[in-house]
Specification:
Layout lengths: L3 H16 L10 E2 L6 H25 L4 E3 L8 H12 L7 E3 L2 H46 L4 E4 L3 H12 L7 E5 L2 H8 L4 E4 L5 H6 L7 E4 L4 H14 L4 E6 L5 H7 L3 E4 H14 L3 H9 L5 E7 L16 E7 L2 E4 L13 E7 L8
Parallel strand pairs: 1-6, 4-5, 4-7, 5-6, 7-8, 8-9
Antiparallel strand pairs: 2-3, 10-13, 11-12, 11-13
């Protein structure tokens, strides 16, 4: 539980953010994980090189009369052409076999040379992906992991996940303490543009969860596209991080029991919440806008869960200056304004209050 001074600093920071809009910092490192296996990628590139070499050999074979071997006077053989193809593509060029006709030289200039360039790009790209990029990513990941403690991991950066990340940033969460895991390159690029770190890959893979250090995380937000995947992901996270808070978004309420058994601490049903607001909107004009405004960090009113401040200790819950107390937690016992009579606030109580986001703060 945060101290009263920390609570006051948090409130002051919220008030400052209400005056100064949040701006995204410089994008952080994007950690990529290959969508296909390294073996498949390597085999594909080897096949491409073999195909290009074969194509070059066939063209040289058809124009073999335009080539001369300075070491012998006999016609070019298949072995000679294979040898010439390989040394030409590899840019070795011993000079023993050379094109002597104009057509052979044009073929070498406009056909063989581009093939040579493409093959070298394949070699360089393979070296970068399998050696240099891995080393750089491992170095960056280790450096990032040293800084990770009490951070937040977001699994899934769809519509709900992206809104949650932006809301966390708006509320003052340091982008350095946020990690997004998603299987879509576009989603990760959008997340890293906000200054958070990104891991490209399936969030259900335990190696990515281990790299994100969910065991040391403050919370894990699971916002994937389907509920069965959310259940499996919750099981994976809970098996790695027994004490980390897990917040899960679901669409169907029938999966709540399975999610509780899997280890979810908080379950948010986006479908149910949306349906309730739709029903309220039929008979009211202001409830839905007020709820949206209250839940948003940028709203005029804000819903806060905080420790009771020193000046509030001793006050009745129905007369707290500048705030409406809607709930109180005292040693695990919950008091609500709609079920319980007003009570006197004690030191150490946790309050759930509605207050203006723009109230003046005398300490600022």
């Amino acid at each position: 539980m945060a101290s009263p001074s920390a609570q006051r600093r948090s409130l002051r920071s919220r008030l400052r953010r209400a005056r100064n809009p949040w701006q995204a910092p410089r994008a952080r490192t994007l950690f990529t994980r290959p969508a296909t296996s390294p073996r498949r990628t390597l085999l594909f590139r080897i096949g491409a090189v073999v195909l290009l070499c074969t194509l070059a050999f066939l063209v040289l074979y058809l124009d073999r009369d335009g080539l001369r071997d300075s070491t012998k006077s006999t016609p070019m053989t298949v072995a000679d052409l294979v040898y010439f193809t390989m040394v030409t593509v590899a840019t070795v060029g011993y000079g023993d076999i050379v094109p002597v006709t104009a057509r052979a030289r044009l073929i070498d200039a406009f056909f063989i040379v581009p093939i040579r360039i493409v093959i070298w790009f394949i070699f360089l790209g393979t070296a970068y992906q399998f050696v240099i990029q891995r080393v750089v990513e491992e170095f960056r990941m280790k450096r990032l992991q040293k800084q990770l403690s009490d951070h937040i991991v977001v699994c899934g950066y769809g519509l709900s996940g992206s809104i949650a990340v932006r809301e966390l940033l708006e509320s003052g969460v340091d982008p350095a303490t946020l990690i997004v895991i998603d299987s879509q390159q576009q989603a990760i690029e959008a997340a890293t543009s906000l200054g958070v770190a990104g891991l490209l890959g399936d969030p259900a893979h335990e190696d990515l969860l281990q790299q994100a250090q969910v065991r040391e995380a403050k919370a894990v937000i699971i916002s994937v596209t389907d509920d069965p995947t959310a259940i499996l992901l919750t099981l994976s996270v809970r098996s790695i991080a027994p004490d980390t808070k897990i917040v899960v978004r679901i669409q169907e309420n029938l999966y709540q029991r399975q999610l509780r058994q899997a280890g979810a601490d908080v379950i948010v049903s986006s479908t149910k919440i949306g349906a309730l607001l739709l029903a309220d909107a039929v008979h009211s004009r202001y409830i839905v806008p007020f709820v949206n405004d209250m839940l948003s960090t940028r709203g005029r009113a804000t819903l806060l869960e905080r420790e009771a401040m020193p000046q509030e200790v001793g006050c009745m819950t129905n007369v707290v200056p500048g705030a409406i107390v809607v709930g109180l937690d005292r040693c695990g016992k919950i008091f609500s304004f709609y079920e319980d009579p007003p009570c006197r606030i004690e030191a150490g109580d946790t309050l759930v209050v509605i207050q203006s986001a723009r109230i003046p703060d005398p300490d600022i």
